[in-house]
Amino acid sequence: MPVVQLRRPASSFVSRPLDDDAPEAAPFLKWAGGKTSLLPELLKHVPARLRGYHEPFVGGGALFFAVRRMARRAVLADSNAELIHCYRQVRDDVSAVLDALARHVYGKTHFQEVRALDPLRLPPAERAARFVYLNKTCFNGLWRVNRAGRFNVPIGRYKNPQFNNPAVLFSASHALRGVELLHASFEEALQRARPGDFVYLDPPYDPVSATASFASYTPGGFSWDDQKRLAHACIALNRRGVRFLLSNSATDRIRELYRGFAQRMVRAPRFINSRGSGRGRVDELLVFNA
Question: Rounded distance, CA 86 to CA 246, Å?
């Protein structure tokens, strides 16, 4: 029988107090387009005091882990059901996830067997461990699915991929305590944002060329119509008194889409390319309303 994950009701969400004694936490997933290297630029736009912190495209959560001590409330969301299930299990039952990870090995045959498994038929901790294992051992950490929703990225070439790292997972679990985790569209997730809160938006980027799109994190992808819906959502946030920061490709049409807001160009490393010559530093756009 498929494992059905029940969403926490909003009323069960508990504000998380500041915890100066919490262990240092960092992303436990290798997420394509992750923002660890861009953190110094992003942090310039984070308020000194955070009433509530929201990420509707959480991915690897680099900015969340960097500011988690500052936020009394946090809501992390994504439309990728497997990603959110993994976050919930790391938060709620990290020991079981680590036990399941200990049964995995790095090798092509094992990778293909694990990739072929139907995640909905696995126990919750094993389902989360499958996600971590595939993420840490696939090519470039790229999570891509076909139209049927099946993960289809090949194995990567690594000497010793660290998919079973208790220190990283335990610290991430601690950081996620009290955090609301939603499998939801960005519109639904943004309904949680209150006046005075801060939202970081890191959607699948507008492709800079016809062959540079990596928006297939979910079966439906992320289209130009989705980009326009997101821009309208940012207008709504601004009207509600919610402060936001958005990152995206510095394409002409994205700059035009957000022409009513402040914009700043930054240089960011680009790692996702099948050819090494295609990697380097590229222009990215930061959009913000304060």
Answer: 24
pTM for the full predicted model: 0.87
pLDDT higher than 90, residue 221: no
Hey, what amino acid is at 282?
V
Q: Is residue 53 within 8 Å of 61, Cβ to Cβ? A: no
Give every CB contact of residue 59 below 8 A, 6+ residues apart in sequence: 29, 31, 33, 34, 35, 78, 83, 202
Q: What is the pLDDT of residues 104-115, one digit of tens each?
A: 999 999 999 999
pLDDT tens track for 1-52: 333 333 333 333 344 444 555 568 999 999 888 899 999 999 999 999 899 9
Range in 85-89, 147-151, 196-200 the model is least confident about: 147-151
HEC per residue, the chain: CCCCCCCCCHHHCCCCCCCCCCCCCCCCCCCCCCCHHHHHHHHHHCCCCEEEEEECCCCCCHHHHHHCCCEEEEEEEECCHHHHHHHHHHHHHHHHHHHHHCCCCCCHHHHHHHHHCCHHHCCHHHHHHHHHHHHHHEHHHCCCECCCCCECCCECCCCCCCCCCHHHHHHHHHHCCCCEEEECCHHHHHCCCCCCCEEEECCCCCCCCCCCCCCCCCCCCCCHHHHHHHHHHHHHHHHCCCEEEEEEECCHHHHHHCCCCEEEEEEEEECCCCCHHHCEEEEEEEEECC
Terminal C-alpha separation, the chain: 49
The helix/strand/coil state of 255 is helix
Domains of the chain are 23-288 (3.40.50.150)
